[in-house]
Amino acid sequence: MNVELMSVGTELLLGDIVNTNVTYLSRELAHIGINVYKHTTVGDNKERLLQAFHNAFVKSDTVIVTGGLGPTEDDITSECAAAYFGRTSYFNETLWQKIEAYLRKYRKNNVLTANNRKTAYVPEGALLFENRNGTAPGVALEQDGKRIILLPGPPNEMKPMFIQSVKPYLQSLSNQCFVSRYVRFYDIGESLLETKLKHYLDTQKNPTLALYAKTGEVLLRITASASSEEVALELVNHKIAEINQLVGKYIYLIGDETIADSQTELHRVIARELLARELTISVAESITGGYISSLLIENSGISKSFIEGIICYANESKVKTLGVQEATLKRYGAVSEQTAHEMVVGTAKRFNTDVAIATTGIAGPTNDGSTKPVGLVFVAVYYKGEVSVKECQFNGNRNIIRERTAREAFNELRKMLQQQKN
Amino acid sequence: MNVELMSVGTELLLGDIVNTNVTYLSRELAHIGINVYKHTTVGDNKERLLQAFHNAFVKSDTVIVTGGLGPTEDDITSECAAAYFGRTSYFNETLWQKIEAYLRKYRKNNVLTANNRKTAYVPEGALLFENRNGTAPGVALEQDGKRIILLPGPPNEMKPMFIQSVKPYLQSLSNQCFVSRYVRFYDIGESLLETKLKHYLDTQKNPTLALYAKTGEVLLRITASASSEEVALELVNHKIAEINQLVGKYIYLIGDETIADSQTELHRVIARELLARELTISVAESITGGYISSLLIENSGISKSFIEGIICYANESKVKTLGVQEATLKRYGAVSEQTAHEMVVGTAKRFNTDVAIATTGIAGPTNDGSTKPVGLVFVAVYYKGEVSVKECQFNGNRNIIRERTAREAFNELRKMLQQQKN
Questions:
Q1: Is B418 exposed, middle or buried (0-12, 13-18, 19+ CB in 10 A)?
Q2: CATH architecture of A2-171
């Protein structure tokens, strides 16, 4: 099956909303082995929509459309799909009763208007998908080897409808199983990793491999298809074992998580490790200003490990709260290896924790009056008396520099914990 | 000008990343009066990309492409654009020197690989846009009344390049001036605001009005076009004055900022106010875990005002560092008005600041073992001896609850500072 995903709505063309539907559907379809050939977004305009159907069916056999199924005048998707196949629409009495009941139950304050009835008109010969979270039903139309599927635009209606009705309908048309796993890398750039994995990337077939660059890290997705989930998983795991042997030292996580929502998993790896080993942690943040702590406490249950964080942005607070020597600040400056070292030791001591992180750096846009460049950062980690300080030079705006600093700190800590374990 | 936005990347068709570029560009183009006709997303495939150019130029005269400009083998956008116009690409030595310098400066650990050189190949006769945050430059090609603009895929490279080079380039092709201003509302929902502004929304022409709901706040964009910037600005300001009279009490900021990157400007309003009035601030964060501090220090120069932040996630730290009474914690719990009150007073006292913020709450997914519900939050603000504690009940996941808490805290502080001023 070759699918084109079509989104209908002028608000998308104006950039008023982000098109998360198309991401969701692409991912769900990829997981069940359906090839998405193209995404298209068009306005609420009959002529353009008919033209878009025409273009889509040149290369695809299935078009899945989201949006334009509502009760207002500019909702024209259903009408256009019927017209494309030369069918008429009819008023579906059973459907209307359901819609009416839904409106009476959930939209008490709304008066039932004439245009509400519009959603009960459906193309002749259509397969309907129930909408449990709204009024407009989903629609599937098949003709001459072409298939149009219409889904409502609001994600809270579309997603449950997809999972509950559309996915099983599509799966019934195929007999392959798909399994994906994700490998996350740090300390290696995309180009170098690609060079190292060139043989695998060039000869890939099943499983397939895909590399993605994230801010400061790289992600590899490995997907296999087979007649059963077990066989597909075995294919994936076998490939991971091979890759692990080659570039294992850069891998920080092998998991099943999907990647759409999260740029990094480093803080989750750290939180899991701290909790598993019953280690306590404290954090002293200058350049990251609370960002490292806020990532750590994203992890449920972390209060057992996370003792306290300090945002010591001012020099005074570095001295008073963390016990950094005035002489150190004077001689080397707040952004220096020496200050970072004293910060991390001071933090661990003050809060009596097994582990500590400290950061100091110049986030820009201007530097601190010295000759030190914007983006210069020192990351210090502490584990039971041992200290490591790393000097980094990052590029980008304030937020990117802080983001990179946080990841670097988590990665340094990860390596130190790893070492202690081995 | 009629534009088609084209996104290139198999990772988009697989749903691995959300296409925020297309939203950003659509909005930016709408602001300068450029009509976006269609969005298309295609995979990293030469034949499909050429076909997509062909289809796009049937209705549009300009195609803006994001993605596929990188150093790896599947980055084929530049090559395809050149081929579409029948041009060859050449190795640009000056560009390569810049790229090499960039790589040596920011990617010290990376070995320079042969494929890095690929980014220095550009189509003949191309106008180049500098990339300050990466290696691949932007490209504009014009021929036979058709225009192809190529931008890098990573948003942190694409957005600054668009603002700095591409937007002025596009504006130079038109003779209308567009001016937009943004009005930000807090303490009022989107539907109610829409009802109050109905007359203006229904009769809008020039300026145009657009409402956007953000997490916890609402944004109104007012855009006018005219033959000169002065006239357009006057039209906008006149409309703002009318709206201010009607719903002024919900407005927290009238500004020129673009909205793409930031959900809120509350922390910037606070930072500006603190610096202007030479007030010092300290922050004690339990539920927000450093998030409020990290928003505050996004503001350049804030070190003059921001004395220290404490992430007192554990009860022990609330008692030891902030002087919250054990009896208070025992009697009312950590998530209570009383604890929030003692936290904020303790913080202001400990760090001897004019202003303080404290937060405590239940972020979920499970509650704290008491009968208190997930999403219950107490936000305390302090200003020169005066304390105000607000109880809130938020809905959503951990991150949304923390996000809402931070905004509520900034808004409460804003109101308190406002009061003291009047």
A1: exposed
A2: 3-Layer(aba) Sandwich (3.40)
Contact B13 A37 (CB under 8 A): yes
CB pairs under 8 A between A and B: 252
Residue B151 predicted with pLDDT over 70: yes
ipTM, 2 decimals?
0.71
Contact list in A for residue B317 (CB cut-off 8 A) is 307-308, 351
Assess whether pLDDT exceeds 90 at residue B244: yes
- In this predicted structure, the answer to whether residue B73 has a pLDDT above a threshold of 80 is no
pLDDT at A179: 82
Measure the CA angle with vertex B339, ends B335 and B340; round to 5°.
Answer: 85
Contact across the interface for A41 and B38, Cβ inside 8 Å: yes
What confidence tens digit (pLDDT) does each residue in A281-319 have?
A: 999 999 999 999 999 988 888 989 999 999 998 888 899
Task: List CB contacts (< 8 A) between A12 and chain B.
Answer: 23, 26, 39
Q: Is there a contact between B184 and B156 (Cβ–Cβ < 8 Å)?
A: no
Residue of B nearest to A287 (CA): B297
Q: Do A168 and A184 meet the contact criterion of CB atoms below 8 Å apart? A: no
Mutation target to probe the A interface, by most A beta carbons within 10 A, among B36, B41, B215, B296 is B41
Looking at residue A176, what is its pLDDT? 78
* Residue range A177-255 in CATH 3.40.50.300: no
Tell me: pLDDT of A260 over 50: no
Contacts of B102 in chain A (CB under 8 A): 395
Answer yes or no: are the C-beta atoms of A394 and A363 closer than 8 Å: no
Fold of B266-421: Maf protein (3.90.950)
> Structure tokens of B97?
């020197």
B294 vs A15, A294, A396: nearest CB = A294
